[in-house]
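A student in our group prepared the protein record below, which I am reviewing. This is what I was given:
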Amino acid sequence: MALAYTKLTNLEVTGQMKVGSVITTTGGVVGNMTGNVTGYALKSAAVTAVATTGGAIPAGVTHAVITSALATNIVKLPAPVVGLKITLIVAANGYELKSSAPATIGINGGVGAAVSSSVAANTVVKIECVSLTNWIASTLTAAGVVGVLEVAV
């Protein structure tokens, strides 16, 4: 049965929906999608590292530009969503990267009440949530040298 409308608003499907053509959306899609999914939207944010509480990366962000006044200032990752990949870029001054719950959610396997991973100035961090209890991260220097972010200690 073909729909006679060319535009739908607030469509909710409770079960499976099979589409034989293309779906285009200007909003978000909630749930699981399979097949040829294109047009992945980059969600960017500016995050300021903060001394004690930490500057938080908002949920759903995939690209964050970090501003830090001191290498000891803190940036906190969002709550874990398996498969989420985030690119973090910092110029002058580094920062300390923490998970949203360091005692139970690790960075490169490191967990503990007050653990963090040090990020050097002029570094790109590529981090992926691989489970509800761990993030895996690598680094790129300004010269393009690939490395591993230190285990949270």
Q: What stands out?
A: The CA atoms of residues 81 and 129 lie 6 Å apart. The first strand starts at residue 44 and ends at 48.
